[in-house]
Known about the structure:
The chain is built from 8 helices and 9 strands.
Amino acid sequence: MSKIWFITGASSGFGKALAEAVLARGDSAVLTARRAAPLQEIAAGHGDRALALQLDVTDAAARGRALAQATGQFGRIDVLANIAGAGSYGALEEFTPEQIRAQMELNFFAAAELSRAVLPQMRARKSGHILNLTSIAGLVAFPGSGLYNASKFALEGFTEALHHEVKPLGIRVTLIEPGAFRTGFAGSAAMKAEGRIQDYAALNAGMEDYYATQDGQQMGDPVKAAQVIIDMVDGDTAPVRLMLGEDAYQLWEGAVASRARDLATWRQRGEDTAIPGALKNTAQAL
Length: 286
């Protein structure tokens, strides 16, 4: 049975690769992004199976209109793919309050609100799949990327909890956690901290060099990633997390080892903070 996809950030990168792949296999897709022209090019030749909608995902009213148009044309949304997002770099102290909020609005709040908005119809059908694109930077923090880390860490926590909340209702929720892919992420779309503090000059120089040298040279192929995502959506079960890229796995494994060493140093003192005779916490990780 063909699926109805609602894809944000469909004009480039992961969103474009995913949009092209689902349309090529015969599914229908609502393609959204701030730029309309690239969406229309992707939709061309697919007739009524493709609906291109200009959408700023940070605009609550626009989100509502887009979802209404999508359900009006197709009747339902089977897969919500929250792909839209952007990077940022600079020392945390150098970002303005406006930049901090803008990053969180785009990378966290937009995806969280769209997820909430599609849940009623998915609950009514007891089916559906929500995909939230984070990053290995949603699990591992890097100096010079702290604001981006914060937005993706937030989406990680939201999505993992949501996965377990709605799984009994027949709804699937998955985090997509890529490493470095050739998506334009390291290009001009990244937001640079507006402040300039000399103490962070070396950090910023390193970040600028990284973005300049990595753009277009990443090892990850978005087309291959899109196919893995589709295969996962088609599968009988869905993981909480789908990590993509050899570099992502290596970074995660290194972070796990580092955290284990860090926690072990103070574990005994930390555990000794218990009140004698108190009941143990019954919460369990799933």
